[in-house]
Amino acid sequence: MERHLIEKKPTWWLLYTLGTALVGSIWLIETSVPSDVARLSLELAAVVTISVLWLGWLRVNRGRIQLAETVVARRDALEPTAQNGSRPPALPASSRMWLERPPRGVRRIA
């Protein structure tokens, strides 16, 4: 059985690749296109295209990012470290409330 998409980690390599592609395409356009108008229009097209791809990446990975942040926040909240041998302070009631409920938009996995 396939794991649900939200259980996977975000594909950060794809975001970094898109950023590198944007920088590379702007550099290539800047060095190879002699006309100012054509260069400006091609650079704008490259920025718009990569921005749309970034938004698509964010839409696909938003749940994955929230899940990863929630897991880290819960681990930090449940295992506070003691400093200088003293007991860690107790969490206020408002901080403990979010531990009991899943975050908005994330399905509960049984």
Describe this structure in words.
The chain has one domain. It has helices at 12-32, 36-78, 93-100. Helix 1 (12-32) runs antiparallel to helix 2 (36-78). The longest helix has 43 residues, at 36-78. The chain is mainly alpha-helical and 110 residues long.
Task: Report a brief summary of the structure.
65% of the residues lie in helices and 0% in strands. With 110 residues, it is mainly α. The protein has one domain.
Defining traits:
mainly alpha, 110 residues, 3 helices, single chain
Largest sheet: none
Rg is 22 Å
Shape: elongated
Q: Report the helical percentage.
A: 55-70%
Query: How much β-strand is present in the residues?
Result: under 5%
Mean pLDDT over the full residue set: 78
* H/E series: HHH
Number of helices: 3
Total beta strands = 0
Count of the separate structural domains: 1
Give the topology, please:
Layout: H1 12-32, H2 36-78, H3 93-100
Helix pairs in contact: 1-2
